[in-house]
Amino acid sequence: GDLLAEEGGDALYRLEVEVRPKALVVDHSFRFFHGQNDFLKKRILVDAAASEPGGGWRTPPGGAPAGRQPRHAWCSDSSVIAQGSGHGQSDPGVEEVALKCRVGAAGTDRTFLVVVYEDKACARVFEVWRVSVHAVHRMDIQGLVGQTEREGCSLTLRSAEGPKRVTAASSHPLELSVDREGAIEVGPSLTEVPIRYTPMQPGRRDILVHFVEEGAPPGAAPVSAWLLVCRAKAPVVSKRYDIRIRAGRPASKKVLYTNPYSINRIFRLRTDKPSLLSFRDASQQLEVAPRATQSISLKFAPHPKGGVTEDIRVFVNDEEDKNEECLLITVEYV
Protein backbone atom coordinates (compact mmCIF):
# COMPACT_ATOMS: atom_id res chain seq x y z
CA GLY A 1 0.00 0.00 0.00
CA ASP A 2 1.08 3.59 -0.61
CA LEU A 3 1.01 6.48 1.87
CA LEU A 4 0.13 9.64 -0.09
CA ALA A 5 0.62 13.30 0.80
CA GLU A 6 -2.51 15.43 1.36
CA GLU A 7 -1.29 18.07 -1.13
CA GLY A 8 -0.22 16.92 -4.53
CA GLY A 9 -0.90 13.26 -3.87
CA ASP A 10 2.76 12.30 -4.06
CA ALA A 11 3.74 8.97 -2.57
CA LEU A 12 5.72 9.46 0.63
CA TYR A 13 6.60 5.79 1.01
CA ARG A 14 5.36 2.35 0.03
CA LEU A 15 4.76 -0.63 2.32
CA GLU A 16 4.64 -4.10 0.84
CA VAL A 17 2.99 -6.78 2.97
CA GLU A 18 3.45 -10.45 2.10
CA VAL A 19 0.60 -12.61 3.40
CA ARG A 20 1.12 -16.35 3.76
CA PRO A 21 -2.21 -17.96 4.74
CA LYS A 22 -1.94 -20.99 7.00
CA ALA A 23 -4.40 -23.84 7.22
CA LEU A 24 -6.70 -23.69 10.21
CA VAL A 25 -6.14 -26.11 13.05
CA VAL A 26 -9.31 -28.21 13.20
CA ASP A 27 -10.40 -29.11 16.74
CA HIS A 28 -13.34 -31.38 15.89
CA SER A 29 -14.67 -33.14 12.81
CA PHE A 30 -18.38 -33.87 12.47
CA ARG A 31 -19.85 -36.22 9.88
CA PHE A 32 -23.60 -36.32 9.27
CA PHE A 33 -25.64 -38.66 7.06
CA HIS A 34 -29.01 -37.24 6.07
CA GLY A 35 -31.86 -38.03 3.70
CA GLN A 36 -31.53 -36.62 0.20
CA ASN A 37 -33.21 -33.33 -0.82
CA ASP A 38 -33.98 -32.40 2.77
CA PHE A 39 -32.81 -29.83 5.32
CA LEU A 40 -30.25 -30.89 7.91
CA LYS A 41 -30.83 -29.22 11.27
CA LYS A 42 -28.37 -29.96 14.06
CA ARG A 43 -27.48 -28.44 17.39
CA ILE A 44 -23.93 -29.01 18.61
CA LEU A 45 -23.30 -28.53 22.32
CA VAL A 46 -20.40 -26.42 23.59
CA ASP A 47 -19.27 -26.29 27.20
CA ALA A 48 -20.01 -22.73 28.29
CA ALA A 49 -17.42 -22.86 31.08
CA ALA A 50 -14.56 -24.23 28.96
CA SER A 51 -11.49 -22.11 28.32
CA GLU A 52 -9.63 -22.05 25.03
CA PRO A 53 -8.74 -25.63 24.06
CA GLY A 54 -5.08 -26.63 23.84
CA GLY A 55 -3.79 -24.17 21.23
CA GLY A 56 -1.86 -21.44 23.04
CA TRP A 57 -1.79 -19.44 19.80
CA ARG A 58 -5.45 -18.61 20.44
CA THR A 59 -4.95 -17.15 23.91
CA PRO A 60 -4.38 -13.38 23.77
CA PRO A 61 -1.55 -11.78 25.78
CA GLY A 62 -2.56 -11.51 29.41
CA GLY A 63 -5.15 -14.30 29.06
CA ALA A 64 -8.81 -14.21 28.14
CA PRO A 65 -10.78 -11.23 29.49
CA ALA A 66 -13.20 -11.75 32.35
CA GLY A 67 -16.95 -11.74 31.85
CA ARG A 68 -17.06 -13.84 28.69
CA GLN A 69 -19.80 -13.10 26.14
CA PRO A 70 -21.96 -15.75 24.43
CA ARG A 71 -20.07 -17.46 21.65
CA HIS A 72 -20.68 -16.73 17.97
CA ALA A 73 -20.24 -18.91 14.89
CA TRP A 74 -19.13 -18.27 11.31
CA CYS A 75 -19.32 -20.72 8.40
CA SER A 76 -17.10 -20.89 5.33
CA ASP A 77 -20.14 -21.81 3.18
CA SER A 78 -22.49 -18.86 2.76
CA SER A 79 -25.44 -21.17 2.00
CA VAL A 80 -25.15 -22.78 5.47
CA ILE A 81 -26.67 -21.11 8.52
CA ALA A 82 -24.43 -21.36 11.60
CA GLN A 83 -25.24 -19.36 14.71
CA GLY A 84 -24.80 -19.53 18.44
CA SER A 85 -28.13 -20.03 20.16
CA GLY A 86 -27.14 -19.15 23.72
CA HIS A 87 -27.57 -21.57 26.58
CA GLY A 88 -29.09 -25.01 26.09
CA GLN A 89 -32.61 -25.62 27.26
CA SER A 90 -31.69 -28.28 29.82
CA ASP A 91 -28.31 -27.16 31.17
CA PRO A 92 -27.36 -23.49 31.69
CA GLY A 93 -23.68 -24.52 31.66
CA VAL A 94 -23.92 -25.66 28.03
CA GLU A 95 -24.23 -23.49 24.94
CA GLU A 96 -25.48 -24.58 21.52
CA VAL A 97 -24.36 -23.87 17.97
CA ALA A 98 -27.18 -24.41 15.48
CA LEU A 99 -26.47 -25.60 11.92
CA LYS A 100 -28.92 -25.64 9.03
CA CYS A 101 -28.10 -26.58 5.45
CA ARG A 102 -29.77 -27.98 2.36
CA VAL A 103 -28.89 -31.57 1.47
CA GLY A 104 -28.55 -32.50 -2.18
CA ALA A 105 -29.24 -35.68 -4.14
CA ALA A 106 -28.19 -39.08 -2.80
CA GLY A 107 -24.51 -39.77 -3.35
CA THR A 108 -23.41 -36.14 -3.05
CA ASP A 109 -21.64 -34.59 -0.09
CA ARG A 110 -20.41 -31.20 1.08
CA THR A 111 -17.73 -30.15 3.55
CA PHE A 112 -17.36 -26.76 5.22
CA LEU A 113 -15.66 -25.14 8.20
CA VAL A 114 -17.37 -23.61 11.21
CA VAL A 115 -15.37 -21.21 13.36
CA VAL A 116 -16.68 -20.61 16.89
CA TYR A 117 -15.60 -17.28 18.35
CA GLU A 118 -15.38 -16.17 21.96
CA ASP A 119 -16.88 -12.76 21.32
CA LYS A 120 -19.40 -10.98 19.14
CA ALA A 121 -16.66 -9.10 17.30
CA CYS A 122 -15.20 -12.45 16.14
CA ALA A 123 -11.75 -11.45 17.36
CA ARG A 124 -10.84 -14.52 19.44
CA VAL A 125 -11.21 -18.06 18.11
CA PHE A 126 -12.51 -20.71 20.48
CA GLU A 127 -12.72 -23.77 18.21
CA VAL A 128 -12.65 -24.71 14.53
CA TRP A 129 -14.90 -27.52 13.24
CA ARG A 130 -14.87 -29.42 9.99
CA VAL A 131 -18.41 -30.54 9.08
CA SER A 132 -19.16 -33.10 6.37
CA VAL A 133 -22.73 -33.77 5.23
CA HIS A 134 -23.44 -36.87 3.13
CA ALA A 135 -26.74 -37.19 1.25
CA VAL A 136 -28.15 -40.73 1.31
CA HIS A 137 -31.37 -42.55 0.47
CA ARG A 138 -33.88 -42.67 3.33
CA MET A 139 -36.60 -45.09 4.40
CA ASP A 140 -38.82 -45.25 7.50
CA ILE A 141 -39.43 -48.56 9.28
CA GLN A 142 -41.73 -49.40 12.17
CA GLY A 143 -41.52 -52.50 14.33
CA LEU A 144 -42.30 -54.17 17.63
CA VAL A 145 -39.55 -54.69 20.20
CA GLY A 146 -38.39 -58.29 20.35
CA GLN A 147 -39.73 -59.51 17.01
CA THR A 148 -38.31 -59.54 13.49
CA GLU A 149 -39.92 -57.41 10.79
CA ARG A 150 -39.52 -58.56 7.18
CA GLU A 151 -42.74 -57.52 5.46
CA GLY A 152 -42.24 -54.31 3.49
CA CYS A 153 -38.56 -54.20 4.49
CA SER A 154 -36.46 -54.04 1.34
CA LEU A 155 -34.00 -51.65 -0.29
CA THR A 156 -33.46 -51.00 -4.00
CA LEU A 157 -29.95 -50.78 -5.44
CA ARG A 158 -28.61 -49.71 -8.80
CA SER A 159 -25.10 -49.40 -10.21
CA ALA A 160 -24.78 -46.88 -13.02
CA GLU A 161 -21.18 -48.00 -13.65
CA GLY A 162 -22.05 -51.53 -14.71
CA PRO A 163 -22.44 -54.85 -12.85
CA LYS A 164 -20.85 -55.05 -9.40
CA ARG A 165 -20.80 -57.41 -6.44
CA VAL A 166 -21.49 -55.57 -3.19
CA THR A 167 -21.65 -56.48 0.49
CA ALA A 168 -23.71 -54.73 3.15
CA ALA A 169 -22.45 -53.11 6.35
CA SER A 170 -24.89 -51.93 9.03
CA SER A 171 -24.17 -49.47 11.84
CA HIS A 172 -26.35 -51.66 14.14
CA PRO A 173 -26.00 -55.23 12.79
CA LEU A 174 -27.73 -56.83 15.79
CA GLU A 175 -30.91 -54.91 15.02
CA LEU A 176 -30.87 -54.49 11.25
CA SER A 177 -29.12 -56.60 8.61
CA VAL A 178 -29.55 -57.82 5.05
CA ASP A 179 -31.77 -60.89 4.82
CA ARG A 180 -29.54 -62.56 2.23
CA GLU A 181 -26.29 -64.52 2.47
CA GLY A 182 -23.13 -63.60 0.57
CA ALA A 183 -22.47 -60.85 -1.96
CA ILE A 184 -25.22 -59.15 -3.94
CA GLU A 185 -25.14 -58.66 -7.72
CA VAL A 186 -26.23 -55.15 -8.77
CA GLY A 187 -26.31 -53.51 -12.18
CA PRO A 188 -27.98 -50.70 -14.16
CA SER A 189 -31.44 -52.13 -13.42
CA LEU A 190 -33.00 -51.99 -9.96
CA THR A 191 -32.17 -54.82 -7.55
CA GLU A 192 -34.39 -55.40 -4.53
CA VAL A 193 -32.54 -56.42 -1.37
CA PRO A 194 -34.58 -57.76 1.59
CA ILE A 195 -33.65 -56.67 5.11
CA ARG A 196 -34.71 -57.76 8.59
CA TYR A 197 -35.30 -55.42 11.50
CA THR A 198 -35.29 -56.72 15.08
CA PRO A 199 -35.43 -53.82 17.57
CA MET A 200 -34.42 -54.47 21.18
CA GLN A 201 -35.35 -51.09 22.69
CA PRO A 202 -38.43 -48.89 22.15
CA GLY A 203 -38.09 -45.49 20.53
CA ARG A 204 -36.34 -44.08 17.47
CA ARG A 205 -32.98 -45.15 16.11
CA ASP A 206 -31.25 -44.01 12.91
CA ILE A 207 -29.40 -46.90 11.27
CA LEU A 208 -26.95 -46.44 8.40
CA VAL A 209 -26.45 -49.20 5.82
CA HIS A 210 -23.61 -49.04 3.27
CA PHE A 211 -23.31 -51.30 0.23
CA VAL A 212 -19.62 -51.51 -0.67
CA GLU A 213 -18.10 -53.14 -3.73
CA GLU A 214 -16.35 -56.41 -3.02
CA GLY A 215 -12.59 -55.94 -2.90
CA ALA A 216 -12.77 -52.14 -2.68
CA PRO A 217 -9.94 -50.48 -0.70
CA PRO A 218 -10.67 -49.12 2.80
CA GLY A 219 -12.36 -45.73 2.69
CA ALA A 220 -13.79 -46.22 -0.81
CA ALA A 221 -17.14 -44.58 -1.50
CA PRO A 222 -20.09 -46.97 -1.16
CA VAL A 223 -22.07 -48.01 -4.23
CA SER A 224 -25.24 -47.08 -2.33
CA ALA A 225 -25.98 -45.72 1.15
CA TRP A 226 -29.27 -45.78 3.06
CA LEU A 227 -30.44 -44.05 6.22
CA LEU A 228 -33.15 -46.13 7.89
CA VAL A 229 -35.21 -44.18 10.41
CA CYS A 230 -36.51 -46.95 12.68
CA ARG A 231 -39.25 -46.58 15.28
CA ALA A 232 -40.11 -49.41 17.65
CA LYS A 233 -42.95 -49.88 20.14
CA ALA A 234 -42.81 -52.06 23.24
CA PRO A 235 -45.13 -55.11 23.19
CA VAL A 236 -47.88 -55.62 25.75
CA VAL A 237 -46.58 -57.44 28.83
CA SER A 238 -48.57 -60.65 29.40
CA LYS A 239 -46.88 -61.89 32.61
CA ARG A 240 -44.75 -60.35 35.34
CA TYR A 241 -42.21 -61.97 37.64
CA ASP A 242 -40.31 -60.55 40.63
CA ILE A 243 -36.95 -62.16 41.45
CA ARG A 244 -34.33 -61.37 44.10
CA ILE A 245 -30.69 -62.25 43.34
CA ARG A 246 -27.54 -61.75 45.39
CA ALA A 247 -25.25 -59.17 43.79
CA GLY A 248 -21.89 -60.29 42.44
CA ARG A 249 -22.94 -63.91 41.89
CA PRO A 250 -24.45 -65.72 38.90
CA ALA A 251 -27.87 -67.26 39.36
CA SER A 252 -30.26 -69.65 37.62
CA LYS A 253 -34.04 -69.44 37.71
CA LYS A 254 -36.98 -71.05 35.95
CA VAL A 255 -40.30 -69.68 34.81
CA LEU A 256 -43.19 -71.73 33.44
CA TYR A 257 -44.75 -71.30 30.02
CA THR A 258 -47.90 -73.02 28.74
CA ASN A 259 -48.50 -73.78 25.07
CA PRO A 260 -52.05 -72.48 24.38
CA TYR A 261 -52.32 -74.33 21.05
CA SER A 262 -53.61 -77.83 20.31
CA ILE A 263 -50.52 -78.68 18.26
CA ASN A 264 -46.85 -79.09 19.09
CA ARG A 265 -45.06 -75.73 18.88
CA ILE A 266 -41.45 -74.56 18.83
CA PHE A 267 -41.01 -71.07 20.26
CA ARG A 268 -38.00 -68.77 19.87
CA LEU A 269 -36.69 -66.97 22.94
CA ARG A 270 -35.17 -63.50 23.02
CA THR A 271 -34.28 -60.93 25.67
CA ASP A 272 -33.75 -57.18 25.50
CA LYS A 273 -30.77 -57.34 27.90
CA PRO A 274 -28.48 -60.21 26.82
CA SER A 275 -25.66 -58.87 29.00
CA LEU A 276 -27.75 -59.63 32.12
CA LEU A 277 -29.83 -62.61 31.03
CA SER A 278 -29.25 -65.64 28.80
CA PHE A 279 -30.98 -68.97 28.26
CA ARG A 280 -29.64 -72.34 29.34
CA ASP A 281 -30.56 -73.82 25.95
CA ALA A 282 -27.98 -72.43 23.51
CA SER A 283 -30.44 -72.74 20.61
CA GLN A 284 -32.77 -70.28 22.39
CA GLN A 285 -35.74 -72.45 21.48
CA LEU A 286 -38.53 -73.96 23.54
CA GLU A 287 -40.48 -76.99 22.30
CA VAL A 288 -43.80 -77.51 24.06
CA ALA A 289 -46.39 -80.25 23.50
CA PRO A 290 -50.07 -79.31 22.90
CA ARG A 291 -51.60 -77.60 25.97
CA ALA A 292 -48.53 -78.63 27.98
CA THR A 293 -46.41 -76.53 30.36
CA GLN A 294 -42.64 -76.28 30.00
CA SER A 295 -40.06 -74.43 32.08
CA ILE A 296 -37.79 -71.74 30.62
CA SER A 297 -34.33 -71.95 32.22
CA LEU A 298 -32.81 -68.51 32.79
CA LYS A 299 -29.17 -67.69 33.55
CA PHE A 300 -28.45 -64.36 35.23
CA ALA A 301 -24.98 -62.84 34.93
CA PRO A 302 -23.41 -61.43 38.11
CA HIS A 303 -24.31 -57.80 38.79
CA PRO A 304 -21.53 -55.77 40.48
CA LYS A 305 -23.82 -53.57 42.61
CA GLY A 306 -26.45 -54.36 45.20
CA GLY A 307 -29.57 -52.32 45.80
CA VAL A 308 -30.21 -52.11 42.05
CA THR A 309 -33.41 -53.15 40.24
CA GLU A 310 -33.46 -54.15 36.56
CA ASP A 311 -36.48 -54.76 34.32
CA ILE A 312 -35.70 -57.50 31.79
CA ARG A 313 -38.06 -58.54 29.01
CA VAL A 314 -38.22 -62.10 27.68
CA PHE A 315 -39.89 -62.44 24.28
CA VAL A 316 -41.60 -65.72 23.35
CA ASN A 317 -41.86 -65.71 19.54
CA ASP A 318 -43.29 -68.09 16.95
CA GLU A 319 -41.43 -69.84 14.11
CA GLU A 320 -41.47 -66.62 12.03
CA ASP A 321 -40.03 -64.66 14.98
CA LYS A 322 -43.31 -62.83 15.62
CA ASN A 323 -44.08 -62.09 19.25
CA GLU A 324 -46.50 -64.45 21.02
CA GLU A 325 -45.97 -63.23 24.59
CA CYS A 326 -43.78 -60.80 26.49
CA LEU A 327 -42.62 -61.71 30.02
CA LEU A 328 -41.39 -58.89 32.25
CA ILE A 329 -38.90 -60.03 34.90
CA THR A 330 -38.07 -57.49 37.60
CA VAL A 331 -34.76 -58.46 39.19
CA GLU A 332 -33.71 -56.97 42.53
CA TYR A 333 -30.00 -57.36 43.30
CA VAL A 334 -29.36 -57.48 47.05
UniProtKB/TrEMBL annotation:
One of its GO terms (biological process) is negative regulation of canonical Wnt signaling pathway. This is Uncharacterized protein. PANTHER family: NEPHROCYSTIN-4. Residues 30-134, 150-230, 239-333 form the NPHP4 Ig-like domain. Residues 51-71 are annotated as: Disordered. GO terms for cellular component: cytoskeleton; non-motile cilium.
